[in-house]
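Here is a complete protein record:
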Amino acid sequence: MIKNKEGITFGAVDMVVTLLGVIIGLSFSGDRNIILTGILVTGIADSFANASGIYAMSHVENGESNIYPAIYCFMATFGTMILMVVPFLAYSLSQAVYISATISLILLVLFGYYAVPKSTSKPYLVPLRFLIVGVSVGIICYVIGSVII
């Protein structure tokens, strides 16, 4: 059964990783409006997609629909998107990219710890894995952005 905690973790982590790639990849455009548009379009679509996926998974696993994990997932995904937009409204473009990347990596570690089961003997492994995924996406999108833009 999908629990609210899982919906929150899934939504937030997915958005952080997705927007980290979008921000780093589009940063080569040097255009704040392109980056903000990329964040908003991706964030809104991802918020609805994540919530729909969690809702469908809840229905498949239980045979009944539980809307609450989907709502929490949507709110976590959408809220994370808003958090990632703020630096682009308050700072210069280069500062905003670094601030957003830093926020992303911190959030991945925090949500990694939040996702660790209490019985885990090595609780640092989950945040480390989340961090590895985030850094990998950042590097891949950096390369793509530097080649294409």
Notes: The chain has five helices and no strands.
